[in-house]
Amino acid sequence: MAEGLQITKIQQSPEIIVLGPPSVFRTHGKEFSSRFRALRPWESPLPLAQFLAAQAQNTQAALCSGTFSLSAAVLDNLPSLRLVVTTSAGVNHIDLSECRRRGIAVANAATIFSADVADLAVGLLLDVLRKISAGNRYVKNGFWPKQGAYPLGFKLGGKQVGIVGLGSIGLEVAKRLEAFGCAISYYSRNKKPSVSYVFYPDLRKLAATSDILVVCCALTEQTHHMIDREVLLALGKEGVIVNIARGAVVDEKELVACLQQGEIGGAGLDVFENEPHVPKELFEHDNVVLSPHFGVFTEESFGDLYELMCGNLEAFFSNKPLLSLVSEE
Amino acid sequence: MDTPIGVLLIRPLSIYIQQELSKRYTLFKFWQVPPDLRRDFLGKHSDSIKAVVGNGVQGADSELIDALPLLEIVASHSSGLDKIDLEKCRERGIRVTYTPDELTDEVADMAILLTLATLRRICEADRYVRSGEWKYADFRLTTKLSGKSVGIIGLGRIGSAIAKRAEAFGCSINYHSRSQKPNSRYKYYHSVIDLASDSQILIVACALTRETRHIVDCDVIDALGRNGVVINIARGSHIDEAALVSALVEGRLGGAGLDVLENEPEVPDRLLGLDNVVLSPHVGASTVETRKAMADLVVENLEAHFLNKPLLTPVI
């Protein structure tokens, strides 16, 4: 009897088209579907365009994963759309100018992931320098008793760190690395007046003076392949690059070439240009640590994300201000 | 003509230190001697060996000291002194030096790295990508570090350096020490069990003494609990390893990051297959920079001794 009331309640609640689906659906999908009327195109045999044409013509809100390409073509099939809630901090997968033109508001994950992503950046960097993944393999494969020489790592303290993009994540990375005794500089679109870190308006100059580059910026037309061969060569043979932002900020082919040629010292990468494809040349290197774009994959962040995305949707349907509106820049 | 001074180097340590010692002394490379031939080797060279250079893995125990009647100084390439029979050295009037500060930052860095690697499954994730598994499915959810409560056993140089780093991750810091530190902003716990109860991550950073052996025992492990993680960058014997392994295998402890083991380099078989355990081969101080600084200090101490000058970092 209670179940019947529950179903009626959902039928009366506004519908939301779920695109992706986002990874948070793995853990919270069932709960979401009992809270909202979720349209789930991946459960249908119809291709997406047909599904949307049949089911989503009146749908006002979309929940979108960070990897779903929300293009003008998709928007064409959602004529009633007024809100997109993306489960990512990044918005590079959304045609923002099209959304603006159509009066569709976009809400993202704001800064809820910044600590976790910054933690991973530090973890990847320390792993490259101190070879913990290689060391763990070494011990678990039984090599330690055989007294094979274990290669020395490199000290983190005293190194010059260049942060590419001093937004929420960049600032969290800086705060952590300062405690390890690193000197922090940064490259950003604009100098940040409230920070004491050294500002470099030229990315190549930042790379030339840095021992370590940590890529923390959004992916836009301007930042696409911003870290090119010149920047990598400037970073130098002992330099380390860490990328927890978007694969395409770095020219991946050039990065692989530089590693193969010994032109840079190491890399810690959570993101790639064509995920989940990873250039197999990277597997040859012990000075490279790889991770499967999981910077936000903690129980805590997924819980926070779920609350935020539901909060945005509920605010929208109650005509209240969105919690994490992406402002125009 | 002076007889050349013989120096016994227990472990390879670094090419750099081998070169620096060879330039100044007759260098005997102990690790190259098969274990069953070591007694004879010492007998053969006991008339020239006046110094021993050991480290945190292997130092100068009673048997070794007894086999070297001309031993004058043990210059340890370590900050820990548990591998040296200090009492015997005192009896024999043998000087002992160590390298107390050179590795503080590196070891603290390793403690945080092990914590991140254990909680965020970094090593497993690297393997997941390399094996091609990522093509088929996303990785599992892991555990956040930022904001968690960290309990440090031992708030000396290394413990303090760990606390400073953990604070930058928004962690709250609890600690246990022989006595409360008067000006510390961290929360003191007289009982290690209470420390473990109130902390999500327990980090061992104290010296190994008779009192601190097995300071992390089954009661402390129980108090830390199913979601707790223990990190050890100190000495393997700080933790009751059998109790630790059982707790991990049975799921009563959330995970462990260990740079040291009780019988290193032997590793308990049951730890090998556990993804919530990260192991490293006692490399907390193993960076190019630290090794050079430690090597330089060992050589400086030896030079000072044989020139009858004051030792730089004496223990005895």
UniProtKB/TrEMBL annotation, chain A:
**Family matches, as Gene3D superfamilies:** NAD(P)-binding Rossmann-like Domain
**The entry's keywords:** Oxidoreductase
The organism's superkingdom is given as: Eukaryota
**Residue stretches spanning the membrane:** none
Q: Which residues form the D-isomer specific 2-hydroxyacid dehydrogenase NAD-binding domain?
A: 122-295
- D-isomer specific 2-hydroxyacid dehydrogenase catalytic domain location, by residue? 52-326
Which InterPro entries does the UniProt record give? D-isomer_2-hydroxyacid_DH, D-isomer_2_OHA_DH_cat_dom, D-isomer_DH_CS1, D-isomer_DH_NAD-bd, NAD(P)-bd_dom_sf
One Pfam family named in its UniProt record? 2-Hacid_dh_C
UniProt xrefs under PANTHER family: 2-HYDROXYACID DEHYDROGENASE-RELATED (PTHR10996), GLYOXYLATE_HYDROXYPYRUVATE REDUCTASE HPR3-LIKE (PTHR10996:SF270)
UniProt record similarity statement: Belongs to the D-isomer specific 2-hydroxyacid dehydrogenase family.
Protein name in UniProt = Glyoxylate/hydroxypyruvate reductase HPR3-like
Q: Which organism is it from?
A: Rehmannia glutinosa
From TrEMBL, chain B:
The D-isomer specific 2-hydroxyacid dehydrogenase catalytic domain, residue ranges: 7-315
The protein's matches in PROSITE patterns, at most eight in alphabetical order, are given as: D_2_HYDROXYACID_DH_1
Where does the source fall among the domains of life?
A: Eukaryota
Q: Where is the D-isomer specific 2-hydroxyacid dehydrogenase NAD-binding domain?
A: 114-284
Alphabetic keyword roster: Oxidoreductase
PANTHER family annotated for this entry?
Answer: 2-HYDROXYACID DEHYDROGENASE-RELATED (PTHR10996), HYDROXYPHENYLPYRUVATE REDUCTASE-LIKE (PTHR10996:SF262)
Q: Which family does it belong to?
A: Belongs to the D-isomer specific 2-hydroxyacid dehydrogenase family.
Q: What is this protein called?
A: Hydroxyphenylpyruvate reductase
Q: Can you name the source organism?
A: Rehmannia glutinosa (Chinese foxglove)
Lineage of producing organism: Eukaryota, Viridiplantae, Streptophyta, Embryophyta, Tracheophyta
